[in-house]
Amino acid sequence: MKRTITPTTVEKVLRDDDFIVSKTDPRGRITYGNRIFIEFSGYTESELIGSQHNIIRHPDMPRGVFKLLWDSIQDKRECNAYVKNMAKDGSFYWVFANITPDLDAHGNITGYFSVRRKPRASAVAAVTDLYRSMRAAEQAAGARDAIQASTRILTDLLTEKGMTYDALVLAI
Predict the structure, then answer these.
(1) Partner of 99 for a Cys bridge, out of 85, 114, 126, 144, CB 3.0 to 4.6 A?
(2) Alpha-carbon distance 157 to 137, whole Å?
(3) What is residue 55's DSSP assignment?
(4) H helices of the chain, where?
(5) Which residue, among 7, 4, 1, has the nearest Cα to 93 in the 3D structure?
(6) DSSP at 9
(7) DSSP strand pairing (92-103 vs 79-86)
(8) 1: Cβ–Cβ under 8 A, 6 or more apart, which residues?
């Protein structure tokens, strides 16, 4: 099912004590979402369960960030990221996300666990500019080369700063 949600300029801001929690299967289908996730996403629990987690993907998010995130967690490493999500009504909300692979006793990935909280305003401002540059590179490159183009923007920045993505995210 293709979503036809139009993004709006309405921002929802997480409260200081909010934690959005979700779990997915290994393919990214939602298996659990807490009440704060349901509240901010605007979807019902039954709409979320079984849906791909990208149901809340905002079009302002660069594909290169999601590639880095997926590469990390599929390599059994946790990942931190600032993410702009889109609710069912088109509004948006920023989160600071920690995504961790769930492993069974044999070290096989059984799913992913994500905890998101309210990000610092200064961090959102910093990543907004970066993500805007990455999205512009994606659009200029076209669909076939979009991920590579935005990833290059990010890796060039990380090389210039001499840090990993996680270190950058935690530093801003």
Answers:
(1) 114
(2) 14
(3) G
(4) 35-41, 45-48, 63-74, 121-141, 146-161, 165-171
(5) 7
(6) S
(7) antiparallel
(8) none
DSSP string of 147-169? HHHHHHHHHHHHHHHT--HHHHH
From the CB of residue 78, how many other CB atoms can be counted at a distance below 10 Å?
14
Q: Which two tokens stand for residue 171?
A: 């530093």
* Paired tokens of 49: 């369960």
Compute the distance between CA of residue 84 and CA of residue 54 in angstroms, rounded to an integer: 11
Residues shown for the chain: 172
Q: In what order do the strands lie in the sheet with 19-24?
A: 30-33, 19-24, 109-117, 92-103, 79-86
* Model pLDDT, residue 3: 60
d(CA 12, CA 85): 10
Task: Report residue 2's pLDDT band, with 50, 70 and 90 as the boundaries.
Answer: low
71, amino acid identity: D
pTM more than 0.90: yes
| Domains and their CATH numbers in the chain | 19-171 (3.30.450.20)
Residue 31 tokens, joined:
């298996």
The reported pLDDT for the residue numbered 149 is: 97
The pLDDT, as a whole number, for residue 4 is: 82
